[in-house]
């Protein structure tokens, strides 16, 4: 055996024992080898390592010295030989971009590296500007945690995909947009667990590996450096473990690890669990998706509860959160067909009442599948078939529903035919990408390659994206151009992240309040209905804002506008961060974020919330863009002028009026038209340097005449006052 093969074999098969400092070179090599397999082929990596085995040996030593706790400064950068293969140059770049590791943490049970992607130029690596990545390696567990910035939040999910990093990156793109409405930026984590390790054990290893390299905060929220970690970057203390596919029941585990580790977020580390808001029990994500659907139905002059039942084709099964809760949202539903990774469900003429009861039974049956469905409830020619079955016989009723003439069809072709069924809603609540652009090629999600359909071939009137990545953007555009109605996943299923954000911000508030955990938990549960209402209102506002934008920009599809809309929120948050929101006249907006019971009991603590600045940036960017969307897309609006006008003229009161008439599309349209006219005229006539000058202008306007004064008085007559004088009243109340 040649020398290079001996080195590779030794590094691959040497014992990966603990503590890791016993065999550090084996851990470093194995970790980066596993990571690079997410980017390059194994053959490419191994060939490069064999060719440059001498440089590889030096690189491993370079990593170990770089993070040696006894080093007083960062070791000099190792210079590769001119003949080093490209793969080794990539490895060198990755090591230089690695800013933390838990190699020297004595109790570590996995190997973790932290990569800052602004520090390298490897073009093959999927990344966004500022992206930070934690990679956790163990012989039985591998996973990535991607953050758009230091303060980011997103779910941690299990995956069986070989290309789990690509899956995480694609999900991150959605999460970045979805998180435009909350304080943190987007994050996403995906871990893959080998067969000889349980999901729970793999999850525990992954979570502890993440926390190993994170800084902490003390009781005064001052930074505490990560122990036994040589950090080559700044303070990094914000990390959360939101539930996701395969980990929805693990919030308690994550919080147990955080509490045992003394991590500052305590049981706010993982939302949900026994002390938080259980998304499946609340059905919050599916309810938010239904807000989108009901808004669309209102514009189609359809009533969810009256008239003809809403016909649905779905992806998922009743054991799932978003599918299960979604198909129990109303009894006025006809589920015509659905499929998941195991079975295909067909019911061409369902009885809404009987089928609802049976779906309810399945939802509460542990680990149910479509094969548990009582076939006597199906319409006469309905059936449930395994996806691995022989060709399926089609009855006349099935042929009619599927618009097919053949007598038999393969399960694969049957699934493609389901997407073409004429129905009201295509309810996407399962894993996979199915709706694409014509001739579009998808990288990743190989298991569903043969089940994709161009958007212009989908038979539904509405696509509801209860799950992420069900459609590509090109697929949505094709569907919309063919007459369909679709948002994007970041709009439809954002209620989950909004719910988690509220929970975490509530719990951070309670960290500063002398209250025992039992009483705190009682309060959190008591305010659940109000929290959920606020979350769903945010879903509603984003939907009606997009309808306004469609009126102004008919050349763009709703999905294209949705991306612009959420990017505008992200940009506005950045601009508003220049405002000093510690000033008391912003208190009312911060108080309104919290449920009334928390306001009444803990008024003064809310005003001193540790995230006050970030919360107000988020709250007010949502207000300004939800209420006045047309001023932020396709035109230039001064953020500070807009903020001052919105505040001093109390334009937020239009929100309550719109919400009072949310099912009356004409009244909603009239209110939004009025607020746009008022705001536009104010922008043209009132550009001041201070909040007090804006207040003086309002006082003058109320005692003068003219077109603007008449318009303003009309607005006042239609929208009730919150405060007679915003500045004075807020300060007096404080």
TrEMBL record:
<feature type="domain" description="NAD-specific glutamate dehydrogenase C-terminal">
    <location>
        <begin position="555"/>
        <end position="627"/>
    </location>
</feature>
<keyword id="KW-0560">Oxidoreductase</keyword>
<dbReference type="InterPro" id="IPR028971">
    <property type="entry name" value="NAD-GDH_cat"/>
</dbReference>
<dbReference type="InterPro" id="IPR036291">
    <property type="entry name" value="NAD(P)-bd_dom_sf"/>
</dbReference>
<dbReference type="InterPro" id="IPR007780">
    <property type="entry name" value="NAD_Glu_DH_bac"/>
</dbReference>
<dbReference type="Pfam" id="PF05088">
    <property type="entry name" value="Bac_GDH_CD"/>
</dbReference>
<dbReference type="InterPro" id="IPR048381">
    <property type="entry name" value="GDH_C"/>
</dbReference>
<protein>
    <submittedName>
        <fullName>NAD-specific glutamate dehydrogenase</fullName>
    </submittedName>
</protein>
<dbReference type="InterPro" id="IPR046346">
    <property type="entry name" value="Aminoacid_DH-like_N_sf"/>
</dbReference>
<feature type="domain" description="NAD-glutamate dehydrogenase catalytic">
    <location>
        <begin position="86"/>
        <end position="546"/>
    </location>
</feature>
<dbReference type="GO" id="GO:0004352">
    <property type="term" value="F:glutamate dehydrogenase (NAD+) activity"/>
</dbReference>
<dbReference type="Pfam" id="PF21074">
    <property type="entry name" value="GDH_C"/>
</dbReference>
<dbReference type="GO" id="GO:0004069">
    <property type="term" value="F:L-aspartate:2-oxoglutarate aminotransferase activity"/>
</dbReference>
<dbReference type="GO" id="GO:0006538">
    <property type="term" value="P:L-glutamate catabolic process"/>
</dbReference>
């Amino acid at each position: 055996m040649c020398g290079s093969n001996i080195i590779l074999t030794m590094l691959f098969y040497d014992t990966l024992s603990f503590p890791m400092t016993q065999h550090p070179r084996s851990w470093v090599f194995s970790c980066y080898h596993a990571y690079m397999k997410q980017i390059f082929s194994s053959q490419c990596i191994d060939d490069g390592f064999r060719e440059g085995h001498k440089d590889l040996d030096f690189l491993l030593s370079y990593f170990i010295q770089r993070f040696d706790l006894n080093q007083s400064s960062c070791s000099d950068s190792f210079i590769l030989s001119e003949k080093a293969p490209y793969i080794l140059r990539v490895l060198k770049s990755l090591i230089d971009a690695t800013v933390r590791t838990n190699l020297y943490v004595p109790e570590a049970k996995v190997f973790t590296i932290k990569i800052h992607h602004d520090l390298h130029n490897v073009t093959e690596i999927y990344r966004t500007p500022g992206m930070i990545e934690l990679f956790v390696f163990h012989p039985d567990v591998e996973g990535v945690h991607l953050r758009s910035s230091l303060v980011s939040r997103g779910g941690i999910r299990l995956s069986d995909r070989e290309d789990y990093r690509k899956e995480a990156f694609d999900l991150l793109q959605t999460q970045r947009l979805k998180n435009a409405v909350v304080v943190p930026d987007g994050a996403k984590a995906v871990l893959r667990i080998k067969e000889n390790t349980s999901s729970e054990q793999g999850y525990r290893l992954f979570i502890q590996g993440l926390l190993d390299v994170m800084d902490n905060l003390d009781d005064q929220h001052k930074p505490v450096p990560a122990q036994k970690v040589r950090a080559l970057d700044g303070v990094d203390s914000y990390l959360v473990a939101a539930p996701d596919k395969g980990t929805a029941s693990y919030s308690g585990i994550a919080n147990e690890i955080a509490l045992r580790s003394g991590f500052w977020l305590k049981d706010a580390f993982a939302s949900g669990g026994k002390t938080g808001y259980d998304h499946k029990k609340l059905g919050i994500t599916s309810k938010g998706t239904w807000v989108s659907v009901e808004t669309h139905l209102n514009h189609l002059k359809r009533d969810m509860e009256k008239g003809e039942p809403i016909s649905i084709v779905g992806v998922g099964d009743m054991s799932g959160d978003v599918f299960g809760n979604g198909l129990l949202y109303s009894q006025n539903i006809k589920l015509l067909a659905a499929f998941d990774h195991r079975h295909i469900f067909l019911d061409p003429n369902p009885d809404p009442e009987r089928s609802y009861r049976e779906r309810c039974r399945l939802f509460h049956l542990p680990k149910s599948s479509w094969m548990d469905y009582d076939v006597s409830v199906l319409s006469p020619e309905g059936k449930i078939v395994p996806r691995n079955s022989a060709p399926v016989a089609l009855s006349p009723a099935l042929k009619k529903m599927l618009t097919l003439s053949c007598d038999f069809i393969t399960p694969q072709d049957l699934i493609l035919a389901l997407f073409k069924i004429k129905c009201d809603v295509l309810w996407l609540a399962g894993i996979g990408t199915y709706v694409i652009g014509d001739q579009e090629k998808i990288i990743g999600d190989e298991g569903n390659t043969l089940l994709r359909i161009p958007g212009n071939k989908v038979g539904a009137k509405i696509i509801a994206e209860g799950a992420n990545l069900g459609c590509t953007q090109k697929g949505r555009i094709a569907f919309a151009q063919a007459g369909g109605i679709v948002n994007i996943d970041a709009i439809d299923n954002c209620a989950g992240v909004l719910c988690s954000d509220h929970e975490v911000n509530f719990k951070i508030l309670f960290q500063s309040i002398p209250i025992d955990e039992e009483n705190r938990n009682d309060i959190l549960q008591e305010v659940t209905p109000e929290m959920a209402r606020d979350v769903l209102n945010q879903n509603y506002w984003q939907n009606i804002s997009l309808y306004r934008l469609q009126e102004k920009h008919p050349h763009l599809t709703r999905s294209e506008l949705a991306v612009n809309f959420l990017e505008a929120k992200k940009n506005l948050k950045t601009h508003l961060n220049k405002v000093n929101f510690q000033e008391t006249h912003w208190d009312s907006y911060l108080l309104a974020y919290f449920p009334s019971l928390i306001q009444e009991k803990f008024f003064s603590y809310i005003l001193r919330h540790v995230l006050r600045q970030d919360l107000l940036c988020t709250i007010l960017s949502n207000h300004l863009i939800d209420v006045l969307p047309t001023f932020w897309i396709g035109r230039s609006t001064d953020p500070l002028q807009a903020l001052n006008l919105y505040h001093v003229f109390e334009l937020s009161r239009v929100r309550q009026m719109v919400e009072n008439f949310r099912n009356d599309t004409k009244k909603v349209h009239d209110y939004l038209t009025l607020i746009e006219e008022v705001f536009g005229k104010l922008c043209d006539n009132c550009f001041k340097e201070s909040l007090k000058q804006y207040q003086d202008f309002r006082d003058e306007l109320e005692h003068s005449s003219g077109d603007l004064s008449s318009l303003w008085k009309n607005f006042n007559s239609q929208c009730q006052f919150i405060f007679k004088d915003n500045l004075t009243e807020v300060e007096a109340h404080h």
